[in-house]
Specification:
Alpha-D-Glucose-1,6-Bisphosphate, Chain A, domain 3; alpha/beta; 14 helices
């Protein structure tokens, strides 16, 4: 089934996923876990999410598993509950995808997303024979425990920020950000099934950040942050209204965590800046490149006992707290860094110690369907047959620290085109050249 993807379950509501499918999915999950387990379940703000929640949890309890309903939350809050309570968890969300999409993110008691377990779930779902039982549903609230845990570890922070929520489930963190000590101007700050008219609640789409950039300057804020639909990603805007390159954000976080604990391990995906390796070694750390995908990063962080993990898709994990990515926590850490350095975000980003971090461009090219995506990738591999085939895609090295990567998206109908170049001008030129290649192959 196309519904089952590399590290989550995702599809278009009423086309790929509906209430009947989610009822069966709940039965499959409960059967795979052999009943008699507690499963925490939350959901995002999409119109279909509560409907799918009702049938999914009905399927779970029919197998004898119990459901802990934690309501409308962010994915990190659901993961935190599962990790803290040492139980399994399921989040009904399609993250940054358009409103028509929905799906599931599943987490182990360790706080690590399902990866191999998705194969087992798919087999159980397809086989269609499910155990029966009489599980129960209870309700629980996680926000206070979540905030208390982070507040105790982060200490005092007091930045003035502007935050973009797109009407996604990260709106639930607004009072928590304020209780951390932040002065918050919130944009699109109530839940909205239509994401206030945005094509998708995606902070990586530059056109989605215009209001945020303008408001940061107008409010004279210390920085701005944009969260995706389920709150596990964060894109940062400096006090001048400029987006900070995600690899540069990773560099700032890596420098910070290695200053606190030297000789630690850092996990970064292959689509990030090559210069992160040099930076990490300059900070007496060890950088380990990872396969792209938040589930793979989480697993590698846990295995390596790494301090930090980062993806060019704006997932940031601080393992001194927990192994999964969290936009709320990343915001708190950024505020902490500004407070300790007594410098603006733009000043920190321009520090000479980060000079080896080149601009990175990550572009998402919709090719219409999963079938088209497979065809385009097959044609790209044939066209560039002499280049390195990695992560299901093609990576071309242009010079020492410049490259182009084509890879299929794991959860949308898109080809991801990622480019590292020494200047933004060259990056734009390379984008024009290689995006036209993709368009011709569709």
């Amino acid at each position: 089934m196309v519904l089952f993807r590399a590290y989550d379950i995702r599809g278009i509501y009423k086309q790929d996923i509906d209430e009947k499918i989610m009822l069966k999915m709940g039965k499959a999950l409960g059967t795979m876990l052999k009943g008699n387990k507690n499963i925490a379940v939350g959901y995002d703000t999409r119109l279909s999410s509560k409907r799918l929640f009702d049938q999914f949890t009905k399927g779970i309890t029919s197998t004898g598993c119990n459901v802990v309903n934690i309501g409308m939350v962010t994915t990190p809050m659901l993961y935190f509950y599962a990790w803290k309570k040492k139980t399994f968890g399921a989040m009904i969300t399609a993250s940054h995808n358009p409103k028509e999409w929905n799906g599931l993110k599943l987490v182990r008691p360790s706080g690590i997303s399902f990866i191999n377990e998705l194969d087992d779930l798919k087999k159980t779902y397809s086989f269609g024979k499910f155990i029966e039982g009489n599980g129960k549903m209870t309700k629980s609230k996680i926000s206070d425990d979540y905030l208390t845990y982070i507040k105790r570890k982060i200490g005092r922070i007091d930045s003035k920020i502007v935050a973009e929520f797109f009407g996604g489930s990260a709106v639930t963190t607004i009072p928590l950000l304020k209780r951390l000590g932040l002065e918050v101007t919130a944009l699109h700050d109530i839940q909205d099934v239509n994401f206030f008219g945005f094509d998708s609640p995606d902070p990586l789409n530059p056109s989605n950040l215009k209001t945020l950039k303008d408001k940061v300057k107008a409010k004279k804020a210390d920085f701005g942050v944009a969260f995706d639909g389920d709150g596990d990603r964060a894109v940062f805007i400096d006090e001048k209204g400029n987006e900070v390159d995600i690899s540069k954000v990773m560099a700032i976080f890596i420098d910070y965590v290695l200053d606190k604990k030297s000789r630690g391990k850092i996990i970064v995906t292959r689509d990030a800046s090559s210069g992160l390796k040099e930076l990490t070694e300059n900070c007496d750390g060890k950088l380990i490149w990872s396969k792209i995908g938040h589930g793979y990063i989480e697993r590698r962080i846990a295995f390596e006992k790494a301090l930090f993990g980062g993806e060019q898709s704006a997932h940031f994990s601080f393992n001194d707290y927990y192994p999964f990515s969290d936009g709320f926590l990343a915001t708190a850490v950024m505020a902490k860094i500004l407070r300790e350095n007594k410098k603006s975000l733009s000043e920190i980003a321009k520090d000479k110690k980060f000079s080896m971090i080149n601009p990175i461009g990550k572009f998402y090219m919709n090719v219409g369907s999963d079938d088209n995506k497979k065809k385009v990738m097959k044609r790209l591999k044939k066209k560039y047959h002499d280049e390195k085939h990695v992560m299901g895609g093609v990576r071309m090295k242009l010079s020492k620290n410049e490259w182009v990567l084509f890879r299929p998206s794991m959860n949308t109908h898109e080809i991801n085109l990622c480019i590292e170049a020494k200047t933004k001008t060259k990056l734009n030129d390379l984008y024009k050249k290689y995006s036209s290649v993709v368009k011709k192959l569709v």
